[in-house]
Amino acid sequence: MSELKERLLPPRPASAINLRENAGSRPSASGRQPLLGVDVLGLKKRGQGLKSWIRVDTFANTQVIEVDKFSMMRRCDLPARDLRLLDPLFVYPSTILGREKAIVVNLEQIRCIITADEVLLLNSLDNYVLRYVVELQQRLKASAVGEVWNPDSVELSRRRSRSLDNVFQNSSPDYLPFEFRALEVALEAACTFLDSQASELEIEAYPLLDELTSKISTLNLERVRRLKSRLVALTRRVQKVRDEIEQLMDDDGDMAEMYLTEKKKRMEGSLCGDQSNLGYRSNDCFSLSAPVSPVSSPPDTRRLEKSLSIVRSRHDSARSSEDATENIEELEMLLEAYFVVIDSTLNKLTSLKEYIDDTEDFINIQLDNVRNQLIQFELLLTTATFVVAIFGVVAGIFGMNFEIDFFAQPGAFKWVLTITGVCGLLVFLAFVWFYKRRRLMPL
Predict the structure, then answer these.
(1) CA–CA separation, 171 vs 246, rounded Å?
(2) Which residues form a coiled coil (predicted)?
(3) Residue 129 in contact with residue 110, Cβ under 8 Å?
């Protein structure tokens, strides 16, 4: 192993060796001796980019592994932009991507990579991630028990292992490959999470809206504003999940790409057939998912890989559209079931939004009614002010510095007051009749 490592790895520069030796022999600034047997430089280098992943295999076994970004790219044959979708430091919309050897799933809290043999999730303390792992384990164990006790599944596995042609035959309707079981649990977790949030929002919204209609206050308006902001954000997330599922259902090619188990069996079958043509034994077939070093690979292996790529392209071109349509029925039914669920959640949020809009319209009508009443009252006050101004005009006229015989009469003040009041009342009634005729106020 050490000889192979020295042959594959480049030689270490002398500066790094001297630096490590000097670091091991020189005491630290605090007077303590450095830790013996610990490669500090190597540890720092290895610590960069390492992420903790939870691995769940087909036998429901879980394992926590630490893999860096480039190793994960080579392991799952994924580009860097797909792994960036799973980064918890960034917020990306819900996405389901079907690749050559993996399915990249980003649905709310569930961010994972699904292959034909394993599921890789970012290690998180989120309850939804832990529930996903537990639920996936339970379903895998239940399906394993069902396959053991179900004679049809045993007979089905025997038919598959008889010859290479049985690999290309359609499976039974009750059979779901590993990647679809993992995808189903992810879809169920995302739909359940969004539906629970929608239900909580409904429970909080309807009493608040009813209270707002009965009592319009600044506090209730602020609570409704926050509620509507949450509703818009949740509706956007639900709409994105629904659009993603609908886009997959509309594209048969994307659904065909997600059959990872069948593609793996085809590739292994093509490899075994090609090796038999080249004179290899049948038990020398190896999995294509294992990486092969280009340095240590013999020329025969490289020629084998080249011939394998030719066989794979020839086989892919030979697949007809009718077989692809038959193969995607299982996945289409699975996606359709959860499309109905997420569409129901979206309809629930849409109904809530319509109720909020109706409440806002009702409040606006109430405010307009109050505003109209204030305008009518202001109009009456303006008319009354005009009538009172008549008294001011009369008082101003009689308050001038001149003498007339009318001032000498003893009942003159009463007559002036009575006549002025009657005239003011007639003017006020004339204005009210005009408002009523013009329908400016309902009197």
Answers:
(1) 25
(2) 224-251
(3) yes
